[in-house]
Design a protein that fits this description.
Blueprint: E1 2-10, E2 16-23, E3 29-33, E4 38-45, E5 51-53, H1 61-66, E6 73-75, E7 81-82, E8 86-89, E9 92-95, E10 104-105, E11 118-120, E12 127-134, E13 145-153, E14 158-167, E15 171-172, E16 176-178, E17 195-198, E18 202-206, E19 212-218, E20 230-231, H2 232-236, H3 241-246, E21 250-254, E22 263-269, E23 275-281, E24 285-289, E25 313-317, E26 332-333, E27 339-349
Antiparallel strand pairs: 1-2, 2-3, 3-4, 4-5, 6-16, 7-10, 8-9, 11-12, 12-13, 13-14, 14-27, 15-26, 17-20, 17-22, 18-19, 18-21, 21-24, 22-23, 23-27, 24-25
Pathway: Carbohydrate metabolism; hexose metabolism
Protein name: Aldose 1-epimerase
Keywords: Calcium, Carbohydrate metabolism, Isomerase
Length: about 350
């Protein structure tokens, strides 16, 4: 294993931003940054041994600072949407930033994704950690929260993300990872012919603003059924109401047999390159987003203009809008019960 650290630039507040690269014995690598505690690149081989980046991103720190996308970012305090930007906890109603129409998205502005985290060196040559403190009232949330993320890159090309958060009073927290994956390569274009499998028999029904209604819907005989491998194109080309609402997939699936243990929840395959990504997590849900918001304007790392559906995000997480649904797994964080979850993305070829 080899780990290098170099200064990448400074953020808008003048804080130093670094780029950390970890390479395993096979030459497969991951690049991380303390800006957004994000993944900047994941370079793994195709079936012919050609190394390519499989996540979308910018070619400089300036792109990440100016851009609205969440390329490779850590998301918090609360991943996904909270309806009408408010929730009630212990009889007190909290009003959050409304940064997605009338709703709250990904922790508000700036959220964890567009802030510089503290660097924490680890003793292991294949890992690195980042920490951020979110003060009481930030984004409208109660309690002071300290979040620590530890990335570990293995010799068999598995990226483990250990996510921990502690609070000094009750609040709500939901963390996730937001890489935009294209197993054909960062500049390969449309992902519609890549094949997805999800360990899920139900998904969360939403309204036309993608806010959960509270209903769990069986995937059987719908375009939401990925219990067996299915090309994304089959659903994306359909007239299903779920696809029409989101202009693609942007939905949360419920993990079958959830027990809080680290299990495989999804796999993505690109038959052309032969690359396979398996996703494991300890969380009860997973948001799948087919980058419907990429509008053909954002220039990518290698000059490719990113377009609609040029990537897919698989984001294990607690359920969106959980604080407003008593029948959802609780997102309440207390001093006695910290947030302690894991997400893994592992890469191989067939």
């Amino acid at each position: 294993m080899e780990k290098t650290i170099e200064q990448w630039g400074v953020d808008s507040q003048g804080e130093k931003v670094f780029l950390i690269k970890i390479s395993n014995s096979k030459g497969h690598s991951v690049a991380l940054s303390n800006y957004g505690a994000r993944v900047v690149s994941i370079i793994v081989p195709d079936k012919n041994g050609m190394l390519e980046d499989v996540v979308l991103g910018y070619d400089s720190l300036a792109g990440y600072i100016k851009g609205n996308e969440f390329f490779g970012a850590s998301i918090g305090r609360y991943a996904n949407r909270i309806a009408n930007g408010k929730f009630t906890l212990e009889g007190v109603t909290y009003n959050l930033d409304k940064n997605h129409g009338e709703h709250h998205l990904h922790g508000g502005v700036p959220g964890f994704s567009h802030r510089t985290w503290k660097m924490i060196e680890t003793d292991e040559p294949n890992s690195f950690a980042f920490r951020i403190t979110s003060p009481k009232g930030e984004g409208g949330y109660p309690a002071n929260v300290i979040t620590t993320l530890t990335y570990t890159w293995s010799d068999d090309s598995c990226l483990n993300i250990a996510m921990q958060a502690i609070a000094d009073a009750e609040t709500v927290v939901s963390l996730t990872h937001h890489s935009y994956f294209n197993l054909g390569g960062e500049g390969a274009g449309n992902i519609e012919n890549q094949t997805l499998m999800l360990k899920s028999s139900f998904f969360l029904e939403t309204d036309d603003k993608l806010i959960p209604t509270g209903n769990f819907v069986l995937v059987d005989k719908t375009v939401m059924d990925f219990r067996e491998p299915v090309r994304l194109k089959l659903g994306l080309d359909s007239a299903a109401k779920e696809i029409a609402i989101a202009d693609g997939y942007d939905h949360c699936w419920i993990v079958d047999g959830y027990k809080g243990e680290l299990i495989e929840v999804a796999s993505l395959t690109d038959s052309v390159s032969g690359r396979v990504m398996k996703v494991r997590s300890t969380l009860p849900g997973m948001q799948v987003y087919t980058s419907n918001g990429l509008n053909g304007i954002v220039p990518g790392r290698t000059g490719q203009i990113y377009k609609h559906r040029d990537a897919v995000c698989i984001e294990p997480q607690l359920f969106p809008d959980s604080p407003n649904h008593a029948n959802f797994p609780s997102s309440v964080l207390s001093p006695e019960e910290p947030f302690d979850e894991v997400i893994e993305y592992s890469f191989s070829c067939v």
